């Protein structure tokens, strides 16, 4: 939806549109052409260059250079350049124009050069066969038809979790039922559990040329159904909440974009008829605050403009269908005055996915401050922690009106956001897989976690890294419950982080339901006094029925804010009495993804639970200082995508960026596990780049334990990165046993983090009696940055 002037190049740009002038420049003295940087008097009236429905081969993709912001503003005022690529760092805009228009721009004093990379991309599009099952050059993105087929398959395979709902028609279908598309919503929830549930509504594809959003939304749906019954958080979210996904909000326009056209609007042929600039910008057509601002990126009254707002508010069938569906799903919780707020207890989240800009945005787009601003700040910053984007109000760069999130919040009081994904409309697949998908998947999962109270829960700490140890016990046996409660997981710290003050857990009944029994937890270090605390408790399983239970953990900060719950499974062994339940049946295997994801990564053959003798305290089960090769295996699942900085047992050479150490010598001895041991000629030459690198230990047989004993994994580690890192970058440690669990994670951030060896102690009681592998992953998945990681002195010990 492009609510900003971009600072980085994109893959394709939009066309110039004619306003009132038909081929003649507006009055004004001509500017002498100059071979280098032209200068233009501020405010000079620029020409509207007429465009007709040209054959694609007639069009050029060019860079037009400007000398100052006044020159850009003057050009933008007359050509809607706010919606094309604008590279402020290198002072050019990218345009799609005809050869004649290129000559006119040069006569006006602009230096114009053809962008050969974009021309090659356009030729690839034109040479490809476009159909229902192929977008030339973009194999990772599904067409409208493929998206709908994938959604229908989810419903077929998971009828107890999924429903496919027709909410209206596209413009083409309103004109001819044999053409166009139905607007379809995929609704996900455990349908066996009745009652009113909080909702997360996700919309994608409102702007046709933005390839990334529908694919992200589709994969989010696939992630949820694939992990229901396996991931405790996904399970409770679908049991007690609903997720609604409008996967293709503008299918008519999307078909134009799938053919390579930089199409943004719907295809309404009543406006700027029979041209490639026809239609209405659906994200300037929503009724709330429609036609209330001028200039910037506000809706235009020019039918050929790419931001044409339409002849009236919600004039388009797509907009009407979306508004009606939102009204049906969410109660009206906000009074009409612009400065009125929704009650803090309002439930529900709406997210509109767009491209591009790496932003998390919230209302109002016209510059007014919403009454629920504190809630928007907190939730926006929490989600931005995961995708690494900049969180800000929608008007932060310039004004716009008639947009979807303003409608959802302004009319209904829903906590509404827009994500601007990535760096391009036609984002290449490598960038999507490497730097967009995973971080935004996790941001959407967080949004689902807080959908019950989005103006309250993000102000409290997040609960992560939960373990119940052992995870399966006989009735009456004690279970050690552990979790990390963290109030500092924010991208920019828009709201202050506070020390943790309390933590509690419930079993089977979630904290928000009547009848929940709250059991306190204690700080692992003995005192609640830090922003991040490990919290512990011993679960008394006496009286728990045989079968699987879910344990909910929730933390509170020193300001009294309870955060969202985290969950883990606990199984009580013994015969289960067959009784009717309200839980959905486990899912069938998911639809194969177009690319490997963490949920389908192959793992070693299932380790067996081999009885071993009872160990004595202090007994070392495994130790490796990497002085010799003990059989660690790099890329064990053969799914790694890192192109450099792969894990290696090596003798590391120290590197630094300015005053920040990026790579250190081994913690002990001469060798360690490191992401590329060589220093190279530059600090970033051998660091992690291009994706994930993984390394797995040899098989380790863990003993069974007796009361009072603990299994502990000890190691030294560091994760170092430069300030252009993000939460997409990470170091993770997983234990692969009868189940796979992430037992440690450190994420990148937008500040320098120097390498410094740190001692880590991890409880492995949940894996006692199993044969396990230690799996270590590091990744550079965001924009190019220096990322280094190392591990040394790995010890597993009975204590």
Broad structural category:
alpha+beta
- Please write the CATH class name of the largest domain: Alpha Beta
Spatial order of the strands forming the largest sheet:
5-6-8-7-9-12-10-11
Do you know the CATH architecture of the largest domain? 3-Layer(aba) Sandwich
Biggest sheet record? 8 strands, mixed
Shape: globular
What is the domain total for the residues? Answer: 4
Radius of gyration: 28 Å
CATH 4th-level superfamily of the largest domain: Zn peptidases
Helix coverage percent = 10-25%
Question: Any low-confidence stretches, pLDDT <50, length ≥5?
Answer: 1-57, 76-84, 578-613
Q: How much β-strand is present in the residues?
A: 25-35%
Extended strand count: 35
Kindly state the mean pLDDT as a whole number?
A: 83
CATH topology of the largest domain: Aminopeptidase
User: How many alpha or pi helices?
Assistant: 12
What gap, in angstroms, lies between the N and C termini? 56 Å
């Amino acid at each position: 939806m492009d609510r900003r002037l971009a600072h980085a190049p994109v893959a394709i740009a939009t066309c110039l549109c004619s306003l009132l002038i038909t081929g003649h420049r507006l009055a004004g003295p001509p500017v002498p052409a100059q071979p280098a940087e032209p200068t233009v008097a501020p405010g000079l009236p620029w020409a509207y260059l007429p465009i007709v429905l040209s054959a694609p081969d007639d069009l050029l993709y060019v860079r037009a250079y400007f000398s100052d912001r006044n020159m850009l503003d003057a050009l933008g005022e007359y050509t809607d350049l706010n919606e094309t690529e604008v590279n402020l760092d290198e002072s050019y805009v990218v345009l799609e124009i005809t050869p004649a228009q290129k000559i006119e721009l040069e006569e006006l004093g602009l230096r114009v050069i053809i962008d050969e990379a974009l021309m090659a991309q356009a030729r690839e599009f034109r040479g490809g066969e476009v159909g229902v099952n192929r977008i030339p050059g973009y194999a990772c993105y599904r067409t409208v038809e493929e998206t709908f087929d994938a959604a229908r398959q989810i419903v077929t395979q998971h009828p107890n979790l999924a429903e496919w709902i027709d909410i209206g028609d596209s413009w083409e279908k309103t004109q001819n039922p044999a053409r166009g598309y139905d607007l379809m919503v995929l609704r996900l929830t455990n349908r066996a559990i009745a009652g009113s549930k909080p909702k997360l509504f996700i919309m994608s594809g409102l702007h046709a040329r933005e390839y990334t959003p529908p694919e992200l939304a589709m994969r989010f749906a696939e992630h949820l159904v694939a992990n229901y019954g396996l991931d405790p958080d996904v399970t409770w979210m679908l049991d007690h909440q609903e997720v609604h996904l409008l996967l293709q909000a503008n299918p008519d326009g999307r078909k134009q974009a799938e053919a390579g056209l930089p199409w943004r609007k719907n295809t309404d042929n009543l406006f700027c008829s029979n041209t490639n600039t026809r239609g209405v910008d659906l994200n300037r057509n929503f009724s709330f605050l429609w036609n209330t601002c001028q200039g910037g990126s506000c809706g235009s009254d020019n039918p050929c403009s790419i931001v044409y707002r339409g002849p009236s508010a919600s004039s388009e069938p797509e907009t009407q269908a979306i508004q009606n569906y939102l009204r049906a799903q969410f109660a009206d919780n906000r009074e009409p005055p612009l400065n009125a707020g929704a009650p803090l207890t309002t439930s529900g989240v709406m997210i509109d996915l767009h491209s591009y800009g790496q932003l998390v945005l919230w209302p109002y787009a016209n510059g007014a401050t919403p009454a629920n601003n504190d809630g928007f700040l907190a939730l926006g910053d929490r989600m931005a922690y995961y995708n690494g984007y900049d969180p800000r109000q929608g008007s932060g760069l310039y004004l716009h009106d008639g947009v979807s999130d303003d409608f959802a919040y302004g009319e209904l009081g829903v906590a509404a956001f827009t994500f601007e994904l990535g760096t391009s409309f036609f984002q290449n697949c490598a960038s999507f897989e490497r730097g967009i998908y995973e971080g935004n998947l996790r941001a959407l999962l967080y949004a689902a976690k807080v959908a019950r109270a989005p103006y309250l829960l993000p102000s409290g700490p997040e609960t992560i890294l939960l373990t119940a140890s052992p995870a399966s016990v006989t009735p009456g046996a004690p279970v050690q419950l552990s979790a990390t409660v963290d109030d500092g997981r924010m991208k920019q710290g828009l709201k202050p982080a506070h020390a943790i003050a309390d933590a509690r857990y419930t079993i089977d009944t979630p904290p928000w339901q009547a009848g929940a029994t709250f059991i306190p937890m204690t700080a692992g270090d003995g005192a609640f006094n830090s922003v991040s605390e490990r919290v512990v408790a011993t679960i008394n399983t006496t009286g728990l029925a045989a079968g699987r239970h879910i344990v909910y953990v929730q933390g509170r900060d020193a300001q009294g804010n309870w955060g969202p719950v985290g969950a883990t499974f606990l199984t009580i062994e013994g015969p289960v009495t067959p009784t009717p339940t309200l839980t959905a049946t486990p899912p069938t295997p998911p639809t194969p993804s177009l690319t490997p994801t963490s949920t389908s990564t192959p793992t070693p053959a299932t380790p067996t639970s081999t009885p071993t003798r009872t160990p004595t305290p202090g007994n070392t089960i495994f130790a490796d200082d990497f002085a010799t090769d003990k059989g660690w295996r790099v890329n064990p699942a053969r799914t790694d995508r890192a192109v450099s900085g792969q894990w290696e047992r090596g003798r590391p050479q120290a590197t630094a960026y300015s005053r920040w150490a990026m790579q250190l010598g081994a913690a002990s001895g001469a060798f360690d596990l490191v992401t590329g041991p060589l220093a190279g000629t530059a600090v970033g030459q051998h660091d992690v780049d291009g994706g994930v690198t993984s390394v797995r230990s040899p098989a380790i047989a863990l003993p069974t334990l007796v009361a009072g004993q603990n299994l502990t994994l000890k190691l030294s580690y560091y994760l170092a990165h430069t300030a252009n890192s993000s939460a997409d970058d990470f170091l993770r440690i997983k234990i692969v046993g009868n189940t796979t669990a992430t037992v440690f994670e450190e994420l990148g951030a937008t500040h320098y983090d120097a390498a410094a060896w740190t001692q880590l102690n991890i409880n492995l009681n949940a894996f006692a009696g199993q044969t396990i592998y230690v799996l270590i992953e590091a990744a550079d998945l965001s924009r190019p940055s220096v990322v280094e990681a190392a591990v040394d002195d790995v010890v597993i010990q009975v204590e």
